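Weekly puzzle thread! Below is a chain. First person to post its structure in token form gets bragging rights.
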Amino acid sequence: MSEDLEFILDDVESSMKKAISHLEVELTKIRAGKANPSMLDGVNVDYYGAPTPINQVANVSILDARTISIQPWEKNMLQAIEKAILQANIGITPQSDGVQIRLFLPPLTEERRKELFKKASGEGEHCKVAIRNLRRDGIEEIKKLQKDGLSEDIAKDAEKNVQEITDKFIVLVDKHLTAKEKEMMSV
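Winning reply:
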């Protein structure tokens, strides 16, 4: 029986780690006023009929705190990259000089910062909900084992362990949100 409990606890913890990883990815997509190549993650270019990430068809680099440079490896990809950035709706208009594309990030207003932080908080809340759902699923699995003959004391201990894991990950979500808020609010 303890093997089953270990499996449940490991499964709950690994699923919660995946939820945190997803949160980290989503938070990097929310711009904080500073140029970051990861802002273009998820933007796919039509590369000879196949959707391909920008970083696989061009060199993406940071020129300064507010400028991203995209230099395609093939000149004929300029329009396709521009089109992909516009369709991705990341809030930045690409500017091409025929050789490379530059993305100029406008400075964030206080109102826009608060709006972006609300979006980040929403992502954090989605992550917390996912973590709580995983806790619920783990506890349900433990109760099923209890019906199959697991002692009540061991089941209660396992439920307590699931709750401790949940608390640890909820604190981690809050740390990520605090770091993102600090990053967004610094001018």
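Puzzle host: Confirmed. Bonus trivia for everyone else. The mean pLDDT is 86.
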